[in-house]
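Structure, all two chains, one model.
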Amino acid sequence: MPADRRDLPRTASKPPLSGSLEPLQELVADDLKQVNAIILEKMQSPVALIPQLAGHIVAAGGKRLRPMLTLAAARLCGARAQREYALAACVEFIHTATLLHDDVVDDSHLRRGLETANAVWGNKASVLVGDFLFSRAFQLMVADGSLVVLKLLSDASVTIAEGEVHQLMTANDTATDEQAYLEVIEAKTAALFSAACEIGAVVAERPESDQLALRSFGLNFGNAFQLVDDILDYSAEQQALGKTIGDDFREGKITLPLVLAFARGSDEEKAFWRRCVEDLEQRDGDLEQAIALMQRHDALRDSKDRARRYAEQARRDLSVFPNNPAKHTLLQAIDFCVERLY
Amino acid sequence: MPADRRDLPRTASKPPLSGSLEPLQELVADDLKQVNAIILEKMQSPVALIPQLAGHIVAAGGKRLRPMLTLAAARLCGARAQREYALAACVEFIHTATLLHDDVVDDSHLRRGLETANAVWGNKASVLVGDFLFSRAFQLMVADGSLVVLKLLSDASVTIAEGEVHQLMTANDTATDEQAYLEVIEAKTAALFSAACEIGAVVAERPESDQLALRSFGLNFGNAFQLVDDILDYSAEQQALGKTIGDDFREGKITLPLVLAFARGSDEEKAFWRRCVEDLEQRDGDLEQAIALMQRHDALRDSKDRARRYAEQARRDLSVFPNNPAKHTLLQAIDFCVERLY
C-alpha cells in the first residue's frame, strides 16, 4: 500500500479479504437462487432420463462461476432488468453441455469427487443430454429475444467447439507449443467467461466501450482460471487436500507446465515425457517424476506467473468502471482464481 | 383419372413421374448449388480436423432432402429473398450434427456404404465436430437475424434431443408400444422436416395459415419418411439392391415392424424377440426369422399403411397452396418417400 494512502479511513463495509470468492457469492446470492430456479425448471422434459441425468451434473456442486460472472457484470453495469437470470442460466447450460461432452471425450469417471454422468448412464445418454441442454440454452436466448446475446453465445459456442477439437489434436503431442496451448484455453474456456461477462453490459444497455471492457475482462479472467486449473493438476497442495491430481498427465493432455518442462528438458527427460504422454506407457512414480521435473525447470512457477499476468490484465480491464460493490467482488474473485489451492 | 379430365391437353412440361425425387431435385438444383457453397464455406475452421471430418460426412452423398424441402417450400410460397440458402444450410448442419452424434451413440461404422466419421477419427472427434456444426448453424441463423427462424430451429433442436434420448430409453425394450415409437420418430426426425418446411413460409413472409400448413406437411412427411426407413431395414428388396439390412435388429432398436410383430406374436415368438433384441443374443438365421415373423403378422404391411396415412395427410396439407411447379414436385417427393426401395 503506498505510504500516502495508509491512513485513509476504511469504508464501513467488511474489510476486503485477499482473494476470495465469498464476496461475489454473497453479492449475487439472491440472484443466483433465481438462476438456479430457472435451471431446475428448464432442465425438465417429459423424457425422464433428461432431468435425471442433467440433475446429477447440475446438482454436483459446481461453483456456478460463469453465471455468477454474468450476474456481477450486470450489477457492475447497473442492470436491474432481471433478464440476466435467464441468460445466466443459458451460460450455465452451455457450460454443463460441454462438461457432459468433455467427460465422454476424456472417458472420465469422476468429476468433483462424484461419478460422472457417463459413468452412471453411459456415453450415449451423456452426448444426447448435452445436446438437449445446449439446444435448451438457445431456446431460452430466443425467448429473451436479444440478437446481440444470441450472437455472443453462438460465437462463443463455435469457439468452444473449435478449442475442444484443437485440444484433441494436441493431446499426446509433445510438439505442442505454448502458443497452441494458449489458443486452446482461450477458445475452450475463456471464450465463455468472456461472453458471460459481456452479457452483463448488454442487459444493462451500456455503451460498447463497457461491453468491450467486460469482454476483455472475461477473456483474461478465463485464461487465468484455466491456467491455474491446469497447474493444480500437478499440485502437491491440492493432493494434500485429498484431491486427485495427475488426471491430465494420465490422459496425455498437454498443458503449460508440461510444455515448459518438455521444452527445457534434456534429451533424456524428453524421452521420459514422450513415453508418458505420447505412448501413455506410465509406471509407478512417473507422476512424481513429472512434478519433480516441472519444479526443477520452474515450469509450475512460470505457468503461475503467466496466470498472474492475465489476472493483472483482467484487473486493468475493470478500471473503466466506477468503484462499486460488484467491482470489489470481481477483483476479489480474480485473486481467488489465481491464488486458490483447489 | 376422372373421365372428364382424360382429354385435357397435357402441359408442355415433362409428364409427371409417379413417385420420384427427381422433379424436386431439378426444381431446386441451382438453389442447392448456392446452399452447398454456403455449407462448404461455413464448415471451414482454422482447426484443420473440423473441415476434414465435416467434409467427410457432408460429401458422403446424402440426399440433402431437408434443405431441398426448405428451398421448395420457399418457392411454393413465392419467396425470392435468397435468405433461404443460408437457412437451408443451417437445417443441413443441424441434421449433420445429429448424424455425427447418432453414429457415436449407435456405435455405427458404416453410413451410406462409407466408413462413418467416428470409425475414421474416433468418437471424440465426432462428438466435438457435431457440436461445432450445431453451433455454426445457430451462428448462421443469428446472421440471418430472424427470431422466428431461431425459435423454429431451437425448438426443433430441443425436440430432436428429447426424441433421441427417448429412443435410447426404448432401445432393447420389447415393452415399447406403438405410441412410444410414434413419439420417438416425430421428435427425432419429423420435427426437423417440419421446421425445414415452415422456414419456407417464414422467408416468404406468408400468413400464419401457410406456416401452419407447411409445419403440418413437414411433420407428416417426416413421419412417413422415418417409418419407411425403418421398414426398409427389414426389406428383401433393399437387400436385393445390395444394401445392408438388419442394422436396427442387431442393435435392438425398437421400430414399428418389431412392435407389431411382437404384440401379435405367440409366447414362443415373444421369447424369440426378447432373446434377440433385449438380450442381444443373436444367431445365424435370426434376422431371416424376424422378417418371416413380421410377414406372418402383416407387421411390414401395416407399418407401410401407417406411412401411407401420414403421406395422405401430407398431401392434404398442401391443398391450401395454389398449383405450381413447387407443389407438384413436393407431391412427387411424398410418393417417392413412401414407395421408395432405398
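The beta strands of chain A are 110-111, 114-115.
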